[in-house]
Amino acid sequence: MNARVVNWKRMYDCHGSVDRVPELLGRAEREGDAEAWTELGYRLCLEGDLVFPASFAALPCLVRLASSDQRARALAGTIVRRAAGHHGCDDLFADCAETIAELRVLLDRYLRSRPDDYLAAFLDLLAANAQYHWSAALGDFTDDFYHLACPHCAVEVTIAIGDHGRYSAIRDWNLGDVERRDLRPTAGEDLSGTGRWMHDTAVRDGQQVLAAGIRYLFGRAECPRCASVFGIADEYTAAECPGW
Length: 244
Fold this sequence. Notes:
By secondary structure, this protein is an alpha+beta fold. The chain is built from eleven helices and eight strands.
């Protein structure tokens, strides 16, 4: 989608306006107007969750500005992360394929600089690679929890990966996590697919805590109830993306 030929009369924002976003983009690009960036964020991604036709129409301009403006990069990433939701703009999003490919290159280059907002940019890159479930679920592995059904006995299992332990457990709302079992991480060289890419990227960029957490997330857990062993990432993906 080329921003220069967008029919803005069809591209409404969160207020239903069709003329405000192109004006704000112009102000942001020409003047670096902080108020314009704030309003763009609100109009293009309401409360950080909802996106609109104008969000995708603005994406090429945002990506073009993103190499030199952190606000553009963050807003473009937020839009792509929310593209997996229900927005009724699938055709517009499909037209952004080349723009998203450009964003992937830009985000990967940005991550190599080891920025302070590394995790946020990493999550944006996951979304740009269509890994929306991991983009939404991944934390910094200081206090991460994943809730899964055991594939063998169907009991709900809590998976903890953080500073307080790396274990599977049964969550008791009075007693906390009980019947804990240590997780079994996968060695980095044994990872494959998305897990291998995530891990290798984190290692490349010196993000050791993130890399270690990914090895556990793509490792195996023992069900505290039936003692069966299953792949954590596989079960999480099956639950979040049943059609995959």
